[in-house]
Specification:
Largest sheet: 5 strands, mixed
Helix content: 10-25%
Strand content: 35-45%
Order of helices and strands: EEHEEEEHEEEEH
CATH topology: Hypothetical Protein Aq_1857, Chain: A
CATH superfamily: HesB-like domain
Radius of gyration: 14 Å
CATH architecture: Sandwich
Distance between the termini: 20 Å
Number of strands: 10
Shape: globular
Amino acid sequence: MVKSNIISLTPRAIERVNHLIDDSNQENKILRIGIEKGGCAGLHYSMDYVSEISDGDEVVEQDGVTIVIDPKAILYLLGTEMDYVEEKFSAGFKFNNPNETSACGCGESVEITPISELEIK
């Protein structure tokens, strides 16, 4: 388990994550973020509650909020900012990911080019 800053959260995202955790019915809920195959652009962001940190998960702590990143998503999410946006007819988390190369018209799926491990070093 390594504490890192793969992803940063805006103040609104922190507020919303805290609200979701506080409103959950189970104790020790942690938000886990990943990338899954699906949608017309090929990938989509996934978010789930977990009760424990798995081997290989990256731990991100910011302003009292702890989230974990699925190890398969790390190279896709490096440098991403997670925001929470409320618009006239919708509200939700928005990922401002510098690794996105395109998105579908509906905004539900994205194409992401992962950062190579060589670029990290």
